[in-house]
Design a protein that fits this description.
Low-confidence stretches: 1-5, 226-243, 316-324
Number of strands: 16
Mean pLDDT: 86
Helix content: 40-55%
Strand content: 15-25%
Radius of gyration: 25 Å
Distance between the termini: 35 Å
Structural class: alpha/beta
Largest sheet: 6 strands, mixed
Strand order of the largest sheet: 13-12-9-16-14-15
């Protein structure tokens, strides 16, 4: 939950990153839909989400590293990790600028390592962020995220001396909102398409998350805009990008000194446009649109050591030739190695979700690539992975892969979907059948309560066995076997033809035998199948079809 202290300490930074990631996940598709500048390629929301995801993961890693120690992370630790993570994971023009905005803020917020940031430092951080982002862009254009960031900083600066950090954040958010609404009148391409700037809208979402993280309350006026179909942007080239403009987007990380980077900026500016170079202290993220991708990479080699090089052709599906791919594949996120083996035997490419370590979108994209197919069905098997999976699917689509995301919320739904997968039928028919099978599968799991807590089924105590049905606690018990029976009875009361039991690593086979007998005696027309899930979070997963 967001904290209520009116300052920005390490916990608030962690909360901010988490809330920003959630906000960008919710708005990703809407932001993608209004992306018409600098290139109408419909990926601004996805790029912002992936950048924020990298920042949030870096902050989580800092907190994880301190769990075994005696001290908690400082504000400086958290903001530096946030900025560094964003720099490493920045995607696209918008993500690269967001990384520089966060880096500019971190430079101010980390100046007093042991002291939470109050209103004065937050004002200065927002001002530094806007200025550093403008400096990173070779040719700043008004009506973009740069305008929105500047307006946010100016609004924050107008808050009175007695204002707290929450009031400063709220003023920045309101200033950004107002500036965002004015962007169609500042940039002709936005006005023609009838949309606000996509990057600016993403920044408004990030600042809304900052308000909630610092004050404990979400903005009173959340930004809402009707999504514009992306087709509305077709045929609307950027004001400074005539049709037939640069063919490639080139992005890479670069280890180089300041002087070498200054020379690199000049050379890349002559090669193309949309040049953004962010970073410092020897590590940079370089983004540019060019016709000669090789020359852009060679310039990086001359400046220092480029790596994590990504080249995207704006017109073609893929830049580099690949061997002929298979027609269709299924990528499945599994909670344990036992299910991983089961799904692999069925021909799926698997991604292991370790306890407490859900896969990032980059891992899902890598799995989609490993599947080496023209068409991929993605089964995330976790409601909390919906935004991550959606971003991964969008990234893979940008690489020319046809991806269908079936929003499975549990591993047993993924098993049901995989069971009806048929690669010989049409892609759409296959997706419909798999979606129907998953949707017809109710899911449950057993968990052990870690502390006393209020639940939908009453108050539980630490050590109680919880039976969760469709994500909500429905049964509280003291015995695994009896709790499992109660859960089965609740689920089968609504009917069912097949029960799937997935046992955790330390659960004895006797439990499965007991539950099979319970189903056989009480529900004559219902079959039961049992799988070993291996090392997984829950001792027992249950599915009813």
């Amino acid at each position: 939950m967001p904290q209520t202290a009116d300052d920005l300490d390490a916990v608030a930074v962690r909360t901010w990153c988490s809330l920003a990631l959630d906000a960008l996940g919710r708005e990703r598709e809407a932001i993608d839909a209004i992306n018409v500048y600098p290139v109408a390629d419909g990926d601004t929301g996805t790029n912002l989400y992936l950048t924020a995801e990298s920042a949030a993961a870096a902050v989580e890693a800092v907190f994880a590293a301190h769990e075994t120690g005696t001290s908690a992370p400082s504000t400086a630790d958290a903001v530096r990790a946030m900025a560094h993570g964003a720099l490493l994971g920045a995607r696209g023009n918008s993500g690269t600028i967001l990384a520089q905005l966060l880096r500019g803020m971190a430079g101010v917020l980390a100046e007093e390592p042991g002291v939470p940031a109050g209103a004065d430092r937050l004002r200065l951080a927002l001002t530094r962020a806007a200025a550093s982002a403008r400096e990173a862009v070779a040719h700043p254009v008004e009506g973009t995220v740069l305008t929105v960031a500047t307006a946010a900083a100016e609004a924050a600066g107008r808050t009175g001396a007695g204002a707290g950090a929450g009031a400063v954040a709220r003023a920045a958010y309101e200033g950004a909102r107002t500036a965002l609404e004015a962007t169609p009148g500042q940039l002709a391409v936005l006005g023609r398409a009838g949309v606000v700037d996509a990057g600016g809208r993403g920044l408004v979402a990030v600042l809304g998350a900052l308000v909630e993280a610092v004050s404990g309350r979400a903005p009173e006026r959340p930004y809402e805009a009707a999504p514009v179909p992306f087709a509305a942007a077709d045929g609307c080239p950027a004001a400074d990008d005539p049709p037939g403009g640069p063919a490639f987007e080139v992005i890479y990380l670069l280890e180089a000194g300041d002087e070498a980077v200054r020379r690199l900026r000049t050379r890349l500016d002559a090669l193309g446009d949309s040049l953004v170079v962010v970073g410092g202290d020897g590590l940079w993220n370089v983004h540019v649109h060019v016709d000669d991708a090789g020359a852009a990479v060679e310039a990086g080699v001359e400046a220092g050591r480029p790596y994590r090089i990504r080249i995207t052709h704006f017109a073609a599906d893929r830049l580099h030739a690949r061997p002929e791919p298979a027609q269709r594949a299924v990528v499945v996120v599994v909670p344990g190695d036992g299910l991983g083996g089961l799904c692999a035997e069925a021909g799926a490419t698997t991604v292991l979700a370790r306890p407490g370590e859900p896969p990032a979108s980059g891992e899902l994209v890598d799995a989609i690539r490993r599947a080496h197919a023209r068409e991929v069905v993605l089964l995330p098997n976790d409601a909390d992975l919906r935004h991550t999976a959606a971003a991964a699917a969008e990234q893979a689509r940008a690489e020319g892969i046809r991806v269908a995301l079936i929003p499975t919320r549990a591993a047993v739904q993924g098993i049901a979907a995989l069971a009806v997968h048929e690669a010989d039928r049409s892609f759409d028919e296959d997706v419909v059948a798999m979606t129907a099978a998953a949707g017809a599968t109710r899911y449950a799991e057993l968990a052990v309560a870690e502390r006393q807590s209020w639940t939908m089924a009453g108050i539980c105590q630490a050590g109680d066995i919880l039976g969760l049905v469709d994500g909500d606690v429905a049964v509280i018990g003291q015995d695994v076997q009896q709790t499992a029976r109660s859960v089965l009875d609740r689920m089968l009361a609504a009917g069912g033809e097949l029960v799937t039991l997935v046992l955790g690593e330390d659960v004895p086979d006797a439990l499965a035998a007991t539950l099979e007998e319970h189903v056989r005696e009480g529900y004559l027309a219902v079959d039961t199948v049992v799988y070993r899930g291996g090392h997984q979070c829950a001792p027992l997963l249950i599915g009813v079809e």
